[in-house]
Amino acid sequence: MKFTEEHEWLRVEDDLVVVGITEHAAAQLGDVVFIELPEEGITVTKDEEVCVIESVKAASDILAPLDGEIVEVNSALVDDPSKVNEDAIGDAWFFKMKIDDLSVLDDFMDEAEYKALVG
Amino acid sequence: MTDQKRTALYDFHVENGAKMVPFAGYAMPVQYPLGVMKEHLHTRNSAGLFDVSHMGQVALTSSQGLEAAMLALEALVPVSVVGLKADRQRYGIFTNDDGGILDDLMIANTGDHLFLVVNAACKAQDIAHLRANLPDHVTVTEITDRALLALQGPKAEAALARIVPHVTSMRFMDSHRVSVDGAQWWISRSGYTGEDGFEISIPAEISENVASQLVAMDEVELIGLGARDSLRLEAGLCLYGHDIDASTSPVEGNIAWAIQGIRRKGGARAGGFPGAARILAELEKGADKLRVGLLPQGRAPMREGTPLFATAESTDQIGAVTSGGFGPSVAGPIAMGYLPIDFAADGVEIFAELRGKRLPVTVAPMPFRPSTYKR
Question: Which residue of chain B comes nearest to A51, CA vs CA?
């Protein structure tokens, strides 16, 4: 699993990049009450705002970690946003992306580097 | 921030895992490890303990007696202070010459003097306002050696009665002074959550001991400012500086109920407070805009500042959300805001603009969840 400085995790499944937010990010947000996901099939560019995530405290955005196409979104999260607090790195994935070159993932932090970042 | 003030319970909050944030010049707990959602629901289902010691506690005494102090205060607030019986309290507002609201407050008649509780962010200004405008026979004393706790929720009475059995005899808006182990407890049956409960002023030096005793009870959890905000929002209660301020009148703010008939046109002590001309006229004819409850039809929370429109296409903004978010007990988004009077009726559909999209919102009655005061 790889990690971004925006506190997202990335993991490769069936040649797609699955994206979610880290447990650290979920804990910082607090109880998540609303999620807006992108439309399946859209093309996004890195750092574009693709999801809205709101907790009882505040609203924030999830940025596309890479250039690519959103091929699938986890619509179960819309019905039950609290999954993000319960299982951030498992059930609570946000979307799956198709990207041209999976090797770009090597540029992201591994778990040890991410843990060092969030202390 | 080293210049933040601390309440007597600062160390207690930190020991209990609070996340401390700056609020009105104080370092205050926004949440504890339970989190905002569970803290909110716990208060609704059991009992929540809040430190509200940052709020201002003020005594008004008069060398000419209690009645003179009451009459004097009526020159600054549009409520009936003289009509407030001993051991009772009521909600009040300080108004300005334009009929706007300088602060909202609680006014208690102790039988000997008046005891006020004012908002933390306004307390210096309120005290200066009182000192500048009350006659010389009234002495304004800020009480700085006492903590203020709120214990709120359906099990608040049972919990507090273990320490102070007297509280079972109190009803909503009673304000009693009770001696407990030699200390004076000033207890009112009130709060700002929509729940039955108590606000408790005690000597600062015993506050940690009292808070520890309460939190040790199964019913009681510590609750931070985050849940305090969602609780008061569900209860339809306004937050000064957001839902009401110096530019909004009490009629616009939908708190005209706080102005008793005796201070209105035709009453025995009509007018005689700042902004009376505008406020008395609005009480008769209504205001041009009104604070209303807003229920977003979808799931997206609508926060303070969200602009409101009459239709999905119209370009003229008609109002804005003044506070809003997610209501854990309502299990959905709730908000309040100001609308022109033509739109300010329950059931009217308007639109909010959120992230470039127009989303439907229904004007709704408040509170969003029935209050459970013990009247």
Answer: B355
Q: What is the CATH number of the domain that holds A85?
A: 2.40.50.100
Size of interface A-B (CB pairs under 8 A): 42
- Chain B residues 131-190 within an 8 A CB cutoff of chain A: none
What size, in residues, is chain A? 119
Q: What is the mean pLDDT of chain B?
A: 97
Indicate the residue of B36, B328, B333 with minimum beta-carbon distance to A57.
Answer: B36
Answer yes or no: do A31 and B35 touch at CB < 8 A.
yes
Assigned domain for A51 exists? yes
> Once rounded to an integer, what is the mean pLDDT over residues B167-183?
98
In this prediction, residue B251 has a pLDDT band, given cuts at 50, 70 and 90, of: very high
pLDDT > 90: percent of chain B = 98
| Residues B295-321, mean pLDDT to the nearest whole number | 97
CATH, domain range B288-375: 2.40.30.110
Q: Please indicate whether, in this complex, the C-beta atoms of B301 and A52 are within 8 angstroms of each other.
A: no
* Shortest alpha-carbon distance between residue A65 and chain B (Å): 21
In a domain, A116, yes or no: no
- Domain of A36, in residue numbers: 2-102
Look at chain A and report how many structural domains it folds into: 1
Q: Is residue A112 part of a domain?
A: no
For residue A56, the distance in angstroms to the closest alpha carbon of chain B comes to: 6
Q: How much is the pLDDT for B2?
A: 60
A36 found inside a domain? yes
pLDDT value of position A119:
82
Domain positions in chain B are 1-286, 288-375
Question: By the CB < 8 Å criterion, does A23 face chain B?
Answer: no
> Please, which residues have CB within 8 angstroms of residue B277's CB and are 6 or more apart in sequence?
B99, B271
Neighbours of B236 (CB within 10 A): 21
Q: Does B31 touch chain A (CB under 8 A)?
A: yes
| C-alpha angle B221-B225-B228 in degrees, rounded to nearest 5 | 75
pLDDT-derived band at B340 (thresholds 50, 70, 90) equals very high
- DSSP helix/strand/coil, B169: helix
The third-level CATH classification (topology) of the domain covering B1-286 is Gyrase A; domain 2 (3.30.1360)
Given a contact cutoff of 8 angstroms between Cβ atoms, the answer to whether B178 and B164 are in contact is yes
Of B124, B164, B173, B174, give the one whose Cα is nearest residue B144.
Answer: B124
